[in-house]
Amino acid sequence: MSSNDESNVEKIIGFDAREMWMSTETHWSRDRREQYLLRLDIQKPLSVDPLVWSSIFYNIYDEHIESASDTYDPLVWTHLSKLKAHLEVSSLQRKYWIIALTCIGDANWYASVSPIIIDQNWVLLGYDIATTSLTSGLLNSGYTKEEQRKLNSMWGGYLNKYHLFADRSHAEEFRAVTDDRVPEHTPFFVYGLYVKYPKIEDECLRQLGQQKQPVAS
Asked: What are the pLDDT digits (tens) for 102-150?
């Protein structure tokens, strides 16, 4: 495989359980939206970044933080079966989504994962742009008012209901923009977010309009 081919490979880097109970009105004030979002009409922004979309194991906004086992990395779970087993014995009685995170390009800094293929039981939520530590350049690297106006005009139409890129090619183009805009945190990478079906509602699936396609390392 050539280096160019390797740069286009989408690899699974881990799994997590993310909250779906938080009030967007409480945690996404008008000021925060204007500083960190391109589209201000998004109801619930989602991201690989746990400071944007909280993990149930890393939740700075809520007093209820689910205790994690030793199999949990500060960023991701490497084994889906261990995550699910932990959730089955959990006392958490709130709504959450099980997600898989993928990275396009050189993702060799992450540990081996299981499974390595996202099958037809997963649905694509969209693509984010973030650093190796999962700091989002799309939703957690503040915009000036001029940047927000200009970038929303150019890119806002490509963002879906979660403030994620629906198309991978647009995300790759915006990654280059982010490298230039936030040079102190480069390099940025394109990440995919997938949700485990049928945890996600059918209505949400219809609105997303995404095709379920396998992703392999």
From this structure: 999 876 777 789 999 888 889 999 999 999 999 999 999 999 999 999 9
Average pLDDT, integer, range 67-90: 75
| DSSP string for residues in 15-64 | EEEEE----HHHHS-HHHHHHH-S-TT-SS---S-TTTS-BTTB-SS-S-
Tell me the C-alpha distance between 185 and 217, whole Å.
26
Tokens of 193: 């977010």
Largest interatomic CA distance in the chain = 48
Q: Which residue in the block uniquely carries the two structure tokens 């280059």?
A: 176
How many CB atoms are closer than 10 A to CB 24? 12
Q: List strands edge to edge, sheet with 96-104.
A: 10-19, 96-104, 189-196, 122-130
